[in-house]
């Protein structure tokens, strides 16, 4: 789905390639990836083993050097950036990685405190903050234990606390809940959500843990080094909800509906904007989710009013079904938002839905 509004992207990836090895052994791990993640967004990335998830995550985290393409983090281009610049960016990121890398000689508390020292956090509020975070993650009894006396899940929770304690602008987490039971996994995810909502922290989680999918604003699927699918969960839900209320789509399965929703473009118009021009080739189908439009037709060189359509109405189907040029003009009367489906996608739906066909026939009949 494409949203035609300018939102503040905190992570902007464009045309990103990545290679490992050299000479004959050179292999490509990432292929031409493009991705935008906004402030306060929680994105879950899934995909088969070896598909490039960790590679992408470490590139975003400045832990690997960008070789080819653009990677912009918090407004700064990483490709070609100095070591000093990379270190500055890195301080604004929280890492929760598969191998927890806790220091064996330090207690849970000290491990977390190191993260605060690295970014220069000081003052009397740091200690209670660390204790509070560890307590929330169910480690109140274990705050002063060293890693060797902690279980795998407990170590994982220390790593989560360490990744979040310095109020990072971006959190990068690689399977953060894999070693956790239901309850502590839920607590970790709740913490992510709070940071995203309260502080506008952006969270990118690589996971196969389907117990936490509900926290995601978007789910990205990575296959063989390429982002295959990128869906905005809430947006898709909203669109599905809208489509479901439209008689047309009642007999589509939820799956088809979700696929359809993913292929819809949301377009915004201002009053006076021409949406469809008579005589043009029909390439798209429109549903009005908000606003009003004027339909007029040029007859004897004069623009004659035909009708007005409002929220919930649709237009543009005649030209698509009959393969004819547009038979009318459509102009936004006020600020109007439309869901737009391209011709091919529209035809797929028509073919897969009986109710759609019969509804269309009725519509065509009435409008002729
Ligand atoms: N340091 C490295 N040297 C050479 N090849 C590497 C290196 N790191 C990763 N690769 C290769 O790059 C590809 C992507 O690896 P990556 O670790 O990003 O996958 P992943 O999606 O995180 O997998 P998993 O789910 O198993 O963690 C794989 O083919 C892997 O073998
Ligand atoms: Mg990995």
Topology, element by element:
Blueprint lengths: L1 E2 L5 E12 L6 E12 L3 E5 L6 H8 L7 E6 L2 E2 L5 H8 L2 E4 L11 H11 L7 H11 L15 H13 L5 E5 L7 H18 L2 E5 L11 E6 L2 E7 H13 L8 H9 L2 E5 L4 E3 L7 E7 L1 E8 L2 E9 L3 E2 L1 H6 L6 E4 L3 E7 H10 L1 H14 L1
Parallel strand pairs: 1-12, 4-9, 4-10, 7-8, 8-9
Antiparallel strand pairs: 2-3, 2-5, 5-6, 10-11, 12-19, 13-18, 14-17, 14-19, 15-16, 15-18
Bound molecules: adenosine-5'-triphosphate and magnesium ion.
The radius of gyration over CA amounts to 26 Å
Order of helices and strands: EEEEHEEHEHHHEHEEEHHEEEEEEHEEHH
Measured by DSSP, the beta-strand proportion falls in 25-35%
Query: Residue ranges: pLDDT <50 for 5 or more in a row?
Result: 1-6
The CATH first-level class of the largest domain comes to Alpha Beta
Biggest sheet statistics: 6 strands, mixed
Strand order of the largest sheet: 7-8-9-4-10-11
């Amino acid at each position: 789905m494409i949203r035609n509004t300018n939102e503040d992207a905190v992570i902007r990836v464009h045309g990103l390639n990545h290679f490992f090895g050299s000479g004959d052994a050179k292999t490509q791990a990432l292929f031409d990836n493009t991705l935008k993640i906004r402030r306060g967004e929680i994105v879950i990335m899934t995909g088969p083993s070896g598909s490039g998830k960790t590679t992408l995550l470490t590139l975003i985290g400045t832990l690997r050097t960008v070789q080819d393409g653009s990677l912009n983090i918090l407004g700064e281009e990483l490709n070609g950036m100095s070591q000093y610049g990379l270190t500055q960016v890195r301080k604004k990121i929280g890492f929760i990685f598969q191998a927890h890398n806790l220091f064996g000689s330090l207690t849970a508390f000290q491990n977390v405190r190191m993260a605060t020292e690295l970014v220069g956090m000081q003052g009397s509020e740091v200690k209670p903050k660390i204790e509070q975070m560890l307590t929330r993650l169910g480690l109140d009894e274990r705050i002063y234990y060293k890693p060797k006396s902690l279980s795998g899940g407990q170590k994982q929770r220390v790593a989560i606390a360490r990744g979040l304690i310095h109020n990072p602008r971006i959190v990068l987490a690689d399977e953060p809940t894999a070693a956790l039971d239901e309850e502590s996994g839920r607590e970790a995810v709740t913490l992510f959500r709070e940071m995203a909502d309260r502080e506008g922290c952006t969270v990118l989680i690589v996971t196969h843990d389907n117990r936490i999918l509900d926290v995601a604003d978007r789910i990205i699927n990575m296959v063989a080094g390429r982002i295959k699918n990128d869906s905005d969960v809430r947006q898709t839900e909203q669109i599905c909800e809208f489509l479901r209320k439209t008689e047309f789509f009642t007999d589509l399965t939820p799956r088809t509906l979700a696929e359809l929703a993913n292929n819809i473009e949301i377009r915004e118009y201002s009053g006076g904007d021409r949406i469809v021009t008579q005589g043009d080739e029909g390439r798209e189908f429109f549903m009005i989710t908000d606003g009003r439009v004027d339909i007029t037709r040029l007859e004897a060189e004069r623009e004659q009013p035909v009708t007005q359509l409002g929220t919930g109405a649709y237009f543009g189907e005649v030209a698509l079904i009959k393969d004819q040029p547009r038979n009318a003009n459509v102009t936004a009367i006020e600020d109007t938002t439309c869901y737009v489906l391209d011709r091919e996608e529209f035809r797929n739906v028509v073919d897969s839905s009986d109710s759609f066909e019969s509804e269309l026939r009725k519509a065509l009949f009435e409008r002729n």
